[in-house]
Design brief:
Cytochrome p450, alpha+beta, three-stranded antiparallel β-sheet, 507 residues
Length: 507
């Protein structure tokens, strides 16, 4: 028996060694021609990035050293190409052979399944096609009331912070954006700003935490070994709450739509709604409604497919926008001349009314505020790094990029490159006055090309609505003592020590 055991483990060890060295040789010729920092056997370059606090500084340093395009090894065998070079990014982001997300997104699948963010190939293309109409301006303008309502609740909450020397704005904004995306995606309110300790809100926070920690913990990267950790049980508990909530909303909404369709047979309907109200959407359509009505290859989406897409909207639509809004407010607080100009635009649009009835057209007219938001996203892109993976060989200049190469798109790096942005560390919204259409692959806070962010117009409207409302009600000032951001690259860009400003009520 002992001999058999020795033989078994010897064979297993030999198989592992054979696999290991075979993986080391994979695409070796390609990586040989890409510069990069020296590696340590087994560890690669991971010891240079000990936590999320190190990532941006280390990648930015290497990006400058190697001209914006270099390789790094993630552990014993896995390589990645880090890109902040314009020509390379244009090749990657515009190429239909580089649409797949990298393996780093696999940790999101327990929550999001293969929704629009994490799906590959044919499924992504089909679902992108059916979801695109959901972001038509006639649909988006229906959500202005949602933005305004959540924004009013945020202003009410922030009034409690007036006069304090330092306020971390991020937690407040996060609950506001969670309210907005929940009502927009599912058509239901969770009142996150008044009930931040609800099971649903806490489960969203827990899952975001688990996904981050799985990215940096070797034991948790694997779906099998994560079962040995406490995060597995936290993930399981959170997913029970999140999936149950989404499934319940889908089932209830499906029944409501079926009843509404019956009402269409009677122009006045049992609920007193006429046909025009139903079709035009005076009863606002959430994204969920469009998913329930959608078909792929003539067939409706399954309950699971709908849940995955709704959960994807929930995940993508709150933390990224909260990050952006918080950094915009920080920039305005620390640049009074920019804040004054943005405030004057609000005064001109609404004749000094602090609480006007804001319309879609009003939001579209906030041209200077849009420049402010764009510049804040340049300095502080909500997703500073995102991953792609080649699903077929791709030609770049004289280089052939093989299949299964991981590419880390370093948006933070190219946004701060003086080659594309003069005085890149300076906050200057004026640089976006005449930048539309120029260098589309140098400014990529929403990615670019065919797999760009489907919700960027929705996000811009939401950011304008929220920031303009805060601007009209509060004068923003720097925190005291002076607050220096400690940027960390997690799922989205955050500051480890908060995003702090001071608030005074406008007279």
């Amino acid at each position: 028996m002992a001999i058999l055991t020795i033989i078994f483990f010897s064979a297993a060890a030999a198989a592992f060694i054979l696999w290991y060295f075979r993986e080391l040789q994979k695409n070796k010729e390609f990586y040989k021609n890409i510069p990069g920092p020296p590696v340590i056997p087994i560890f690669g370059n991971v010891l240079s990035v000990r936590s999320t606090k190190d990532i941006l500084n280390v990648l930015f340093k290497w990006s400058n050293e190697y001209g914006g395009l270099y390789k790094m090894r993630l552990g014993p065998i896995r390589w990645a190409v880090v890109a902040a070079d314009y020509d390379f990014l244009e090749c990657v982001l515009s190429n239909t052979q580089i649409l797949n997300k990298s393996d780093d997104y696999l940790s999101m699948r327990p929550w999001l399944g293969t929704g629009l963010l994490t799906s590959d190939g044919t499924k992504w293309k089909k679902h992108r096609r059916i979801l695109t109409p959901a972001f038509h301006f006639q649909i988006l303008e229906q959500f202005v009331d949602v933005f305004e309502s959540a924004g009013n609740r945020l202003v009410k909450k922030l009034r409690n912070e007036i006069g304090k020397n330092s306020v971390d704005i991020y937690p407040y904004v996060t609950l506001c954006t969670l309210d907005i995306i929940c009502e927009s995606a599912m058509g239901t309110s969770i009142n996150a700003q008044y009930d931040g300790n609800s099971d649903y809100v806490q489960s969203v926070k827990s899952m975001c935490k688990v996904i981050i920690e799985r990215t940096f913990n070797v034991l948790e990267m694997n779906d099998v070994t994560i079962r040995l950790t406490k995060n597995y049980y936290l993930q399981k508990k959170s997913l029970n709450v999140l999936h149950a909530k989404t499934n319940s909303v889908i089932v209830n909404r499906r029944k409501e739509l079926e009843n509404n369709n019956k009402d269409l047979n009677n122009v006045n309907g049992v609920n007193g709604k006429n046909e025009e109200d139903m079709i035009i959407g005076k009863d606002k359509k959430a994204f969920l409604d469009l998913l329930l009505e959608a078909t792929v290859d003539g067939k409706p989406l399954t309950q699971e497919e709908i849940r995955q897409e709704v959960d994807t909207f929930m995940f993508e639509g709150h933390d990224t926008t909260a990050s952006a809004i918080s950094f915009v407010l920080y920039c305005l607080a620390n640049h009074p001349e920019v804040q004054q100009k943005a405030y004057e635009e609000q005064q001109m649009l609404f004749d000094g009314d602090k609480n006007p009835t804001v319309t879609y057209t009003d939001l579209q007219s906030m041209k200077y505020l849009e420049q402010v938001i764009k510049e804040a996203l340049r300095l502080y892109p909500s997703v500073p790094i995102y991953g792609r993976k080649t699903n077929a060989p791709v030609k770049y200049n004289d280089i052939s990029i093989p299949k299964d190469v991981t590419i880390a798109v370093f948006a933070f790096g190219i946004h701060r490159n003086p080659k594309y942005f003069k005085e890149p560390e300076k906050f200057n919204p004026g640089r976006f006055e005449n930048m539309d259409g120029r260098l589309p692959y140098a400014y990529i806070p929403f990615s670019a090309g065919p797999r760009n962010c489907i919700g960027q117009k929705f996000a811009m409207l939401e950011m304008k609505s929220t920031v303009s409302k805060i601007l009209r009600n509060f004068e923003l000032e720097p925190a005291s003592p002076e607050h220096k951001l400690n940027l960390v690259a997690e799922l989205v860009l955050k500051s480890a020590n908060g995003i702090k400003i001071a608030l005074n009520l406008r007279k």
